[in-house]
Amino acid sequence: EEEEDEDEKVQQEEQYASWNERPIYQLSPYEISWTLPRNEAKQLGKQLATLFDTVDTVKPKSKSRKPGGVKAGKGRRSGGYGIG
Predict the structure, then answer these.
(1) Of 52, 14, 12, nearest in space to 32 by CA
(2) DSSP calls for 24-83
(3) What is d(CA 60, CA 6) in angstroms, rounded to the nearest whole number?
(4) Is 46's pLDDT higher than 80?
(5) Cβ–Cβ < 8 Å for 76, 70
(6) Could you tell me the pTM of the whole model?
(7) Cβ atoms of 49 and 55 closer than 8 Å
(8) DSSP H helical segments within the chain, as ranges?
(9) Can you tell me the distance from the alpha carbon of 76 to that of 70, in angstroms, rounded to the nearest whole number?
């Protein structure tokens, strides 16, 4: 029985080492799923993202919807090489 315990420990150590050394596409996938109301699911997702250090940084939305590079009073169609 002691040999089995040692073999199991060696296998676990090899498996943990493979997570650090092998490319992600060669590792066995893990999946988590749950059924919760939307509010609770979003909160849980944020907590898990923080726990796994995968939090996305949120960029503040621009208040202007005007396309960049267009001067005031000019449309995108005016300009270029034609008469205009």
Answers:
(1) 52
(2) GGGSPP--------HHHHHHHHHHHHHHTT-PPPPPPPPS--SPTT--TT--SSS-SSS-
(3) 53
(4) yes
(5) yes
(6) 0.37
(7) yes
(8) 2-21, 38-51
(9) 6
